[in-house]
Amino acid sequence: MKIIIAGDGKVGHALTRLLSQEGHELVVIDSDPEVLENNSQLFDVLPIEGNCVTMKTLSEAQVEEAELLIAATNSDEINLLCCFTARKLNPNLHTIARVRSLEYLHQCYEMREDFGLSMTINPEGNAAKEIFRLLQFPGFLKRETFAKGRVEIVELLIPGDSVLCGVQLSKLSDVLKCKVLICAVVRDGNVAILGGNDTIKENDHIYVTAPTNVLSTLLASLNIITKKTKHVMIIGGGRISHFLAKSLISAGIKVKIIEQDEERCRLLSRQIPEAAIINADGSSQEVLDSEGLAQTNALVALTGLDEINIIMSLYAASRGVPQVFTKVNRMESTGFLEDIGINRIINPEELCSASIVQYVRALQNQTGAAVTLHHIAGGRAEALEFRVNEGTYFTNTPLKSVNIKKNILISCISHKGKTVIPDGNSAFTVGDTIIVVNATGTPILQLNDIFNI
Amino acid sequence: MNIKLISRIIAMILLAESVLMLPSMFIAISDGDMKVAHSFMITIVLVAAIGLIVLKFVKNTRKDFYAQEGLVTTGLSWIVMSLFGALPFFISKQIPNYINAVFETVSGFTTTGASILGDVESLSRGILFWRSFTHWIGGMGMLVFLLAVIPVIGKNSGSNVYLLRAESPGPSPGKFTPKIHHTALILYGIYFALTFLCFCFLLAGGMPVFDSMCTAFGTAGTGGFGVKNTSLAGYSAYLQNVTTVFMLLFGVNFNIYYLLILRKFSSVFKDEELRAYIFLVFLSVVSISLNIYVSMPETYGTFRSALHEAAFQVSSIMTTTGFSTCDFDLWPSFSKSILLVLMCVGACAGSTGGGMKVIRISLLFKSIKRNTIKAIHPRQVWAIQVNERVVDEKIINGTHAYLSVYCSICLISFLLISLDGLTTGTNLSAVLACFNNIGPGIELVGASRNYSVYGAFSKIILSLDMLLGRLEIFPILLLFNFNTWKRHG
Q1: Is the domain of A357 the same as that of A269?
Q2: Alpha-carbon gap: A41 to the closest alpha carbon of chain B (Å)
Q3: In sequence order, what are the beta bridge partners of B155?
Q4: B165 at the A interface (CB within 8 A)?
Q5: Beta strands of A316-397 (E only): which ranges?
Q6: What is the pLDDT of residues B393-452, one digit of tens each?
Q7: Domain that holds residue A372
Q8: Which ipTM value was assigned to this complex?
Q9: What are the tens digits of pLDDT across the range A31-54?
Q10: Same domain (yes/no): A294, A400
Q11: Which CATH number characterizes residue A441's domain?
Q12: N-to-C CA span, chain B
C-alpha cells in the first residue's frame, strides 16, 4: 500500500520503521533535508523535501496514487491543513493527523468531515492514558485491553521469591487459584511462547492473558500487595503531565508536578488548580527528597530528556518508591533498561504507532483484519484481536486438532460476552472474538494466516 | 566492515555473470567454433562454481550494511567481474595475453570501448558478441540489475540504496519510487526498451542481425566496441544517423524518460541539465561543421556532409560512446580541441554515459558565478539553484571535491603512462579517453588506431582509470585505502 508520512520527527520515524517492516511503499515528506537523508539511509523509502501543506510538494509525493496520509509534524495546525489539502487532491485518500493540543481535540472530532480526517492520534494523550491504567493496578508492568475491556494481557516480572518460580505451566491454575494463560515470556532478551511442560524461571517477564475481573485475584495469589495509589509525583510539566494529572485528579489521587519553567508552572496551576505545582529543578535529588519522594506511591519521570528520566527513576527506585514510570523517546530497543531495573517504560511514539499500524492493516483487508493490535514484549511480539467469521477455517474444532504455526498462540476466546481461557478441548465458532499472540516476527494480516494449511 | 555479506553479494554477481555468458556460448556453438565454445564453458562452470561455493559456505549473520560497505562491494564486484570476464578471451587464445584480455574486458564493462585489438574482424563471433554484451551489462550496472531481480540485502532494507548510489553516475542519484526494487526495475525496463528500439531501427536499415545486436549494445551502454575494423564508417548514412540519435538518447538522464512515462512534460521541458546538454551538442555540432567545411573543402564538399560527420562525432564523444565514422585525428585543431573538451564534460547524470557529467559542469559554473559576485558584494546571500530548487551546500562541496580528485587522478595517470615514451598528445588523450569512458583519443590512440602501443604497466593504469571513471572514483579509491580494511576503521 502507498502511504505518505508528512513530518519526519519522532512519531514519523517510529512509523517509518514499523510500516516499512510491513512492506509498504512509503513516501516521507520533511522540510529538513538532513533529517530526510538520515531516514532514507535507514529505510527503503522515497524522501521528498518540502512543505507538506503545499499542493506542489504533495503532488510530488504522488498523493494522487496514495491510499493513506499520516500528518505527524510537530504543529497541529500544519497537520490539519496538510490532511485538508491532500484530500482536495485525492478525495479517496484516508488521512490521519496528529493533534496534540487539548483545545483542538474536541473540535477535530466535530469537524472531521470538513478536515477530511479519518482518524486523529494524540501520542501524549495515549501515553497519559496508559500510565493511568497501570497506576490503577500497581504490580503490573503493562496492561493491554481487548474484547471491549473484558480481557487483558498484563506483564509481570518474576522475582526470586515469587510463588511462580519453578512452576510448570500445566500446574499454573493450581498455584494461582484462577484460570489464566501465560501467552509469552521474555527471557534473556528473547521472546518465546512456552508449552505446558516448560517452567517459569526467576527474572522472567511473563505476559498473562486474563479476564479483567480476575486481575485482583491474580495479584492476591501472587502475594503482590496492592496498596491503592494515593500520591503521585510527576517530574516535568509537559503535555503528558497535563493529561495525566487531569485523569488522576478526577480519580481522587493527589498529584504533585515538579517543573523548572516558571511560566509553564503558572499555566499549569491555572489549568489544574487541584494539583500541587512545584517550580524547581526536577533533576535535583534534594528537591525530590524535600518534596516527599519517600512517601509517594509512584513517580512518573516525564522530562524531555531520556537521560534525566532514567537517572531520576533509578534514584526513586533506590529510595523505595513502589512504582516508577520512565518516559523514553529516543530509543528503539529498551530491553537493556530492564536489566538495570527500569521496568515501566513509556514510549509515546511507539504507543501511537501501534494504533496506526492497526489502522493500516485494517485498510489493507477490509474484512478479517485485527480489531485490536498491541505490541508486547518491547515490540518483539504482537497481540491481536480477531473476530471469527464464516470464512475462518477450523471453526468448531477442538484446538488440539488444529494445526497452528510455530510461535503463535490463541490465548483467549470470547464467546457471547463470556471469556474462556482456552485449553486443548476449547473451540471457537462464528461470531466469537479470539486473541492471538504472535511472536514470529512476521505480521499477521488476517486470522487464517495463523494456521498451517 | 561486513565482509561476509559483501562476499555473498559478489558471489551473486558471479552467478549472474555466468548466466549472462550463456548467449555468447550458444553463438559460438552454433557457429561450430568449438574452441571458443569450450573457453566459455570452462569459464561459466568455474565462475558458477565459485559463486555457489561462497553462497553455500559463507553465511551472513549480521545485517549491517552502510555507505562504506556499499562502496567496497561496488568497487570489488566490478574488479572481480572484469577479471573473470576476461577468461573467455584468454582461454580461447583470441587475446593470448591476460593483461590485454583484462584491459579489453574492463573497457567493455566500463563502457569505454578502448581496444588493444588491431584486427577486430578476425575475432570469432561468440567472442565479439561477449565483447559488445559487456557494454550492455556495464551500461546500467550489474548491481542495479541484481537489485531489480532480488532483494540483495534483505527485503525492505534501506541499505540497498547504498548499492544503487555507489553504482549510478551523477552527484546525487536517487530513487523515483518508494521501493528501490521498483526503481531498478523501471530503469532496466527503459534501458531494455530503448535498446530494442535501437536494434529494430538498425535492422530496418539493412544491417545484419548480428551487427545490429552488437551495435545496439555498444550504443545503449555508450560503449563503442564495433564489429568492424572501421567502426561504423562502412555502414550507410541512415545507419550512422540512427546511431547518432540513439547515442544522444542514451546520454540523457533516465529520470527524464520516467517523467515522460508519467506525462510530466513540463518538468522535462524545464530540466536544466537536459537543456544544457542539448545546447552543448548543438553548439559543438555547428562549430565543428563550420570549421571542417571551411578548412577541409576537398573532404567535405557539401555543408551537409560536414554536418553529418560532425553530428555523429560530437554525439559519439559527448555521450562517451566512442564509435567513429571517420578519422577525426585529421580534423583541424579547433575541432579536435572541442572534442577533447567534450570528452571531459561527458553525458548527463543518471545516463549510461561517463565523463564529469553536464550537471556537475553547470554546478561548477554557477559556483564560479557566485564566487565572483561574492568578491564584489561580500555580504550578498546567494543560494545555487537547479530546476528552481536550492542545491544543498554539501552537493556543491562534493562537486568541488570531485573536480579536484578528478584532476589529480588525470595528472597522476598522465605522468605514469608517460613512462612508455609516447607523445604528450597521445598520453593526455589516452588518459582522458579512458578515464571518461570514451575509447578513442587522438594521435597514436586515435579513432583508427588502438591501445596496443602501450606496455603492460600502462594498460593496468588505464584499466584502473576506466574503473575509476565509470564508478565515479570513490568505490575504487576506497579499496586502496588502508583504513577501509582495518577492523574498527
Answers
A1: no
A2: 6
A3: none
A4: no
A5: 323-327, 344-346, 372-376, 381-387
A6: 888 888 899 999 999 999 999 999 999 988 998 999 999 999 999 888 888 888 778 898
A7: 351-450
A8: 0.74
A9: 988 888 888 777 888 888 889 999
A10: no
A11: 3.30.70.1450
A12: 8
